[in-house]
Write a sequence for this structure.
């Protein structure tokens, strides 16, 4: 049986992009998905699998406070360049059994939303990304 106080709460999450802390972050997701190829095998009707790679992608959600990331991506795109960054995520709930901290390297910010707003709505910015490398710095 586990103590419910030990369940991590996202309210205690922190995010840095290129060593700048983004306190306006409201959500962060990074998912690592293995890719498999089909392997045929004699005398077997089963579909066998072989690991052939992985995909690392996710999304940052921010309260729309500044245009910094939008400008960074937009300026790079005008130059024909990808926006590559380092992302560090940390969730450190004081009630939990520890914290989880990861770093993503070679992350490419994939979108710059130039405008997206509605009357009487709190504005958010969602930035999808892909990355090629990661390191788990702390885990529970």
């Amino acid at each position: 049986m586990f103590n419910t106080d030990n369940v991590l709460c996202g309210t205690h999450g922190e995010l840095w992009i290129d060593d700048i802390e983004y306190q306006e972050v409201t959500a962060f997701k990074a998912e690592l998905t293995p890719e498999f190829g089909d392997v045929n095998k004699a005398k077997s009707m089963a579909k066998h699998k072989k690991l052939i790679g992985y995909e690392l992608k996710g999304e940052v959600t921010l309260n729309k406070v500044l245009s910094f990331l939008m400008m960074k991506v937009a300026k790079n795109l005008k130059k024909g360049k990808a926006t590559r960054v380092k992302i560090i995520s940390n969730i450190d709930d004081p009630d939990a059994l520890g914290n989880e901290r990861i770093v993503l390297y070679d992350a490419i910010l994939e979108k710059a939303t130039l405008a997206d707003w509605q009357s009487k709505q709190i504005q958010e910015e969602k930035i999808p990304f892909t990355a090629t490398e990661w390191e788990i710095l702390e885990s529970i």
Notes: The chain has a mean pLDDT of 95. The two ends are 17 Å apart (CA to CA). The first strand starts at residue 13 and ends at 17.
